[in-house]
Write a structure and sequence with these properties.
By secondary structure, the protein is α/β, with parallel strands linked by helices. The protein is built from 23 helices and 24 strands. It folds into four domains: about 190 residues, 3-Layer(aba) Sandwich (Rossmann fold), CATH 3.40.50.450; about 120 residues, Rossmann fold, CATH 3.40.50.460; about 190 residues, Rossmann fold (3-Layer(aba) Sandwich), CATH 3.40.50.450; about 130 residues, Rossmann fold (3-Layer(aba) Sandwich), CATH 3.40.50. The chain has a seven-stranded mixed β-sheet, sandwiched between helices. It has a seven-stranded mixed β-sheet with strand order 14-13-12-15-16-21-22. It has a four-stranded parallel β-sheet with strand order 7-8-6-9, sandwiched between helices. Bound molecules: adenosine-5'-diphosphate (ADP).
Length: about 750
């Protein structure tokens, strides 16, 4: 008879199926979280094959064994296909190899195939142990002590095709690789006025194709879930591309998902698209198949963060519900959640079946709202001319401006806002240099092609300024709003922009013109704005920090070096904490917490112990405004002096590289979604009896608006940051990942 499962004391972790960037970060997180819980943890080499082989393929891991793997692409544990695991005999051997080591919990990072196989193993486990006892291979007592296998899965797959998680491990990195490649192709395509057909991975899922098209401003996209409407889809594609040429577009970029098909289910290949462009349009066309480049390289900041929190949660899941139905740990609506694993696998396979059956409406609906919204936005963006649907009398004049520091993604947002507005028949006005420009009447009209190429451009073409209007400016601003007949304002920017918009809004009783609807869209690398878990630009900044800290760490040729790295953030520790998680820092100083002399003494002591026990490299991240006295130089000098001969210390203030560079795919995609929703909101408000003003944001992964009059109630006015910051709950995970002990990384 089966007894109640006990709390597992020993677990095994493996990576299986296609490799995905972030798998190493997940393994590292599982190992360090399990050790923190006092468990033993084993790494299994070569996926499920290692379970079948046993011996050296399954070995105990220490915290130091997973040091330095966070930034590595692929999987250091290895992955392999395994035919034996598909047989009961293979799985019987696997059970033997686990139970003889006292392991009865398994964490698998893999695709739906691996997770299905692992679940079969879990279901058979009690029977497999009985067989082993009957064959005299293990003792009955041992079998009884491990009568249940606890299985927890995480999805490692670049396709982002799995239910139970909004993002799979590796998908964001793949988008980075694809976006970098297409940005590069765009410049050569544009130089030669060529057409390029780019094939990206995704046999049943158009996620990578759709999102990379959105992120790169591609001119046409073909995905499995939504085949072209008509039989002669080639004709509609050619018409759109010809129209683009006629308005001066220098390149055509067509993205084709591996599994793209027409209405009848016949595959659409990149070669076919090339032939069409050459024959029907006489275009000089090249095909690029991005192939395995998409899988490779160092994981993005998001994949490192995601894998770390998922790995931590997987261990918690093993401990909270040992022996229970297998669970899948994923991220949904910005929250880490667990769901029954097999239900997720079944739903995932159902989409593939629906596509195969030609029921494309259902396939799109099953992908969810943001997938369909993204597809609709692309349809607007690829047009060569606006549809101008608004009636003459309903045409509005909408202004776009920036305020605050520059944030990568600002240009992307302006491009979308302008095209969506023009497409609906409105006039779009650019205000240069923020609210100062508005005061001075620095306003001009933007046309469809004025913002061509802005999707991928860093910086802020319209100019931005931290100037918040003074009382005396308000009358001038009201005057300009009247003079330019501005009906609504979209402010894309940071704290200064929110404060300025709020000021205008509160003075509308004194200046009637200030009563127009204003919508603020969060664009700041600091991620310090209310009403949104994320602001545009923060992801790019994080990736900039992570890439540079990776290099800084590599520069430590000699052992015994500690780096003190200062990052931006103004009064918000988001960049510091997230970059600490993503680079494996042992200590992060946040402005929300401050730092005291005794903190520094404790940290120094921990460093001394670490280096004495063999640690080779130390990393401390300090947010720029943690403390006016305990500056980065101060901490460097203190650690240097007190570290003595054990270690030396270098400081690095990353500075403005954090604000620069081309926006990351995530920032481009979110900027696109938010800006398009903002323009729709403004139009709706102008038409409303009592127009509202608001800030837009992503909350629990969804786009939501908050009334602009709540700005002060939701923020710490002195510290310039929101009262609630959900990312603060990640501090314990960061601590566990750093933990005590030598040879961190
Ligand atoms: P992915 O995990 O990326 O979907 P695969 O489908 O190739 O990759 O599966 C990886 C491995 O998982 C297979 O080589 C096999 O060992 C195991 N596996 C997959 N499906 C099953 C199954 N139905 N039963 C047992 N093992 C399976």
């Amino acid at each position: 008879m089966l007894t109640t499962p006990h709390r597992p004391t020993s677990l095994a972790v493996l990576t299986s199926g296609g490799d995905a960037a972030g798998m190493n970060a997940a393994v590292r997180a599982v190992v360090r979280s399990a050790l923190h819980e006092g468990m033993q943890v084993h790494g299994v080499k070569e996926g499920l094959r290692g379970l079948v082989q046993g011996g050296d393929a399954i070995r105990l891991l220490s915290s130091g064994d997973v040091g330095g793997i966070l930034q590595q692409g692929g999987t250091v544990l290895g992955t392999a296909r395994c035919a034996e695991f598909r047989t009961r005999e293979g799985r019987r051997q696997a059970a033997h190899h686990l139970v003889e080591r006292g392991i009865d919990a398994l964490i698998v990072v893999g695709g739906d195939g691996s997770l299905t196989g692992a679940n079969i193993f879990r279901e058979e486990w009690p029977g497999l142990l009985d067989e082993l006892v009957d064959a005299g291979e293990i003792e009955r007592g041992r079998a009884d002590a491990h009568n249940r296998l606890t299985l927890v899965g995480m999805v490692g797959s670049i396709d982002n095709d799995m239910f139970g998680t909004d993002m799979t491990i590796g998908a964001d990195t793949a988008l980075h690789r694809i976006t970098e490649a297409i940005d590069a192709i765009r410049s050569t395509a544009s130089s030669h006025q060529r057409s390029f057909v780019i094939e990206v991975m995704g046999r049943h899922c158009g996620y990578l194709a759709l999102m990379s098209a959105l992120a790169t401003g591609a001119n046409w996209v073909l995905i499995p879930e939504n085949p072209p409407d008509t039989d002669d889809w080639e004709e509609s594609m050619c018409r759109a591309l010809t129209a683009g040429r006629s308005i001066g577009r220098r390149q055509n970029l067509v993205i084709v998902a591996e599994g793209a098909r027409d209405r009848h289910g016949s595959p659409i290949t990149a070669e076919h698209v090339k032939a069409v462009l050459e024959e029907r349009l006489g275009e000089d066309t090249r095909v690029t198949n991005l192939g395995h480049v998409q899988r490779g390289g160092s994981p993005s900041a998001f994949d490192r963060y995601l894998s770390t929190v998922l790995g931590y949660a997987a261990v918690q899941q093993v401990l909270t519900a040992p022996g229970a139905e297998a669970q899948l740990i994923g991220i949904r609506e910005h929250q880490i959640i667990s769901s029954p694993l097999m239900a997720c696998v079944r739903q995932t396979q159902a989409v593939a079946d629906v596509i195969a059956a030609g029921d494309y409406g259902t396939a799109m609906a099953m992908r969810g709202g943001s997938f369909t919204d993204s597809f609709d936005i692309i349809r607007t963006m690829v047009r060569a001319h606006p549809r101008a649907t608004a009636a003459e009398t309903e045409r509005l004049r909408l202004a776009v401006l920036h305020a605050g520091g520059p944030a990568p993604g600002m240009n992307t947002a302006v491009r979308v806002a302008v095209r969506v507005g023009l497409d609906l028949g409105h006039t779009m006005l650019a205000v240069r240099n923020g609210f100062r420009g508005l005061r001075d009447g620095d306003v001009d009209e933007l046309s469809w092609m004025d913002i061509s190429g802005w999707v991928a451009r860093g910086g802020a073409e319209l100019g931005t300024s931290r100037h918040v209007p003074a009382e005396v400016d308000l009358a001038a601003i009201a005057g300009q709003i009247e003079a330019h007949r501005i009906d609504g304002i979209l402010m894309i920017g940071g704290w200064a922009g929110y404060a300025s918009a709020h000021l205008l809004h509160t003075r509308r009783s004194e200046h009637a013109a200030l009563g127009l609807p204003i919508v603020c869209m969060p664009a700041s690398i600091n991620n310090d704005l209310p009403g949104s878990e994320l602001s545009i630009g923060a992801d790019t900044a994080l990736n900039n920090i992570v890439a540079n800290v990776d290099k800084i760490k590599q520069s430590a040729v000699a052992s015994g070096r500690c780096f003190v790295v200062e990052v931006m953030g103004r009064h918000c520790g988001y960049l510091a904490l997230m970059s600490g998680l993503a680079t494996g820092a042992e200590r992060v100083y946040l402005p929300e917490e401050g730092v005291s002399l005794s903190d520094l003494e404790e940290d120094l002591e921990a460093l001394r112990i670490g280096f004495r026990e063999g640690k080779r490299l130390g990393l401390v991240i300090r947010s720029e405004n943690v403390d006016p006295v305990y500056t980065t130089s101060f901490i460097r000098a203190l650690f240097e002096r007190e570290g003595g001969h054990l270690f030396d210390v270098r400081e690095s203030i990353l500075g403005h590289i954090q604000q620069g560079g081309d926006p990351s795919p995530f920032d481009r995609i979110q900027a696109t979604r938010l800006a398009s929703t903002c323009v729709e909101y403004l139009i709706e408000q102008v038409g409303a009896g009592e127009p509202q003003s608001a800030f837009i944001g992503l909350r629990r992964g969804k786009i939501r608006f908050t009334g602009l009059d709540r700005f002060q109630a939701l923020t710490e006015q002195e510290a310039h940051r929101p009262l609630e910051q959900s990312w603060m709950s990640l501090r314990p995970v960061a601590q566990i990942m750093a933990g005590p002990g030598p040879a961190r990384g």
